[in-house]
Design a protein that fits this description.
Layout (H helix, E strand, L loop, with lengths): L1 H14 E3 L5 H7 L6 E6 L4 H16 L5 E6 L4 H6 L7 E6 L2 E7 L4 H13 L5 H15 L3 H14 L4 H13 L3 H8 L10 H12 L6 H13 L4 H13 L3 H14 L3 H17 L4 H14 L2
Parallel strand pairs: 1-3, 2-3
Antiparallel strand pairs: 2-4, 4-5
Helix pairs in contact: 3-5, 6-7, 6-8, 7-8, 8-9, 8-10, 9-10, 10-14, 11-12, 12-13, 13-14, 13-15, 14-15
Length: about 300
């Protein structure tokens, strides 16, 4: 019995381990080139972390080596958490191929944790048809086919009126067309108990950031300043803010990453903070966020 017990502990240790900022490159970045790695940012004082921890460990262990879990105490290791924009815990990031590919915040029910891991491993879950339809609509919206995306989101909502990802997507279609009021009306369709969903909060953040849309002449002047002095990062930051207010997140991300590629700590982290706000407003599954996080990760962990 002692031998069996030792073997189980060793097996679990291979799949679940504590790590540090210093070991992050080896334990997460490099390890995720072999199998997906989940990173659980936690702290001893965090109540929800104590609930999530055992559940996510069981879920990872049940996958028999197809995925690993790395746990990082942010009180002792605040560096990587800060670089990735962790603002509340528990926060879980999924890394694959050396890059962050997905994530969630808060203590999810165990069933949802398993669904998250299954989706990471297979690209599907129990709501395959709806997920595929939403993914298609997301892609259409990213390609600026606003009408097609809106119709597909609406079809999903008709099938499942509580599908907040589709409701948030439809609201984003209205935002892309500059119609903030109809975006708010779309969000109002969500059931009361789902209005604090991250997808909904993300759109509300986008609405907040679009409150001060620049006039065309202000836009033109900001672009001219950057073209005249490419290394004037204050002017480039100003242009990024105007792009965000106009709902042009991809262009804003490009401007902010240009600043960060030259100076990661520019203005005491001002550019990085704004970049993380854009990611929050765009949402974790938006191509702008996914690609932006990959590019940011490349700068941070090069």
């Amino acid at each position: 019995m002692d031998i069996i017990g030792t073997s189980d502990a060793a097996g679990t240790a291979e799949l679940v381990k504590d790590s540090t900022d210093q070991a992050f490159m080896a334990d997460v970045i490099e390890a995720s080139r072999e199998v997906p790695v989940l990173v659980d940012f936690w702290a001893p004082w965090c109540g929800p972390c104590k609930t999530l921890g055992p559940m996510i460990e069981r879920a990872v262990t049940s996958k028999a080596g197809k995925v690993k879990l790395v746990k990082i105490n942010i009180d002792e290791n605040p560096g990587v958490a800060g670089q990735l924009g962790v603002r509340s815990i528990p926060a879980v990031f999924a890394f694959q191929g050396g890059q962050p590919v997905d994530g969630f915040m808060g203590a999810l029910p165990e069933g949802q944790i398993n669904q998250f891991i299954d989706k990471l491993l297979s690209g599907t879950d129990d709501g395959k048809a709806i997920s595929e339809a939403i993914a298609q609509a997301d892609a259409m919206l990213a390609a600026e086919d606003i009408g097609g995306a809106g119709q597909l989101y609406a079809a999903v909502i008709q099938h499942d009126p509580a599908q907040v990802a589709a409701i948030a997507g439809l609201a984003r279609c209205y935002l892309a067309g500059g119609d903030v009021e109809r975006a708010r009306e779309a969000l109002a369709m969500a059931p009361e108990d789902k209005r604090d969903d991250p997808a909904m909060a993300s759109v509300l953040k986008a609405i907040e950031m679009m409150a001060d849309a620049p006039a065309p002449d202000e836009f033109a002047a900001a672009i001219e300043r950057v073209e005249a002095a490419p290394e004037d990062y204050a002017a480039r930051f100003d242009l990024a803010e105007k792009l965000v207010a106009a709902g042009r997140n991809k262009a804003a991300v490009d401007q902010l990453l240009t600043i960060l590629s030259a100076d990661l700590g520019w203005e005491d982290g001002k550019a990085r903070a704004k970049l993380l706000e854009v990611f929050e407003a765009a949402g974790p599954k938006d191509p702008v966020t996914i690609e932006g996080r990959r590019r940011l990760s490349s700068l941070l962990f090069a």
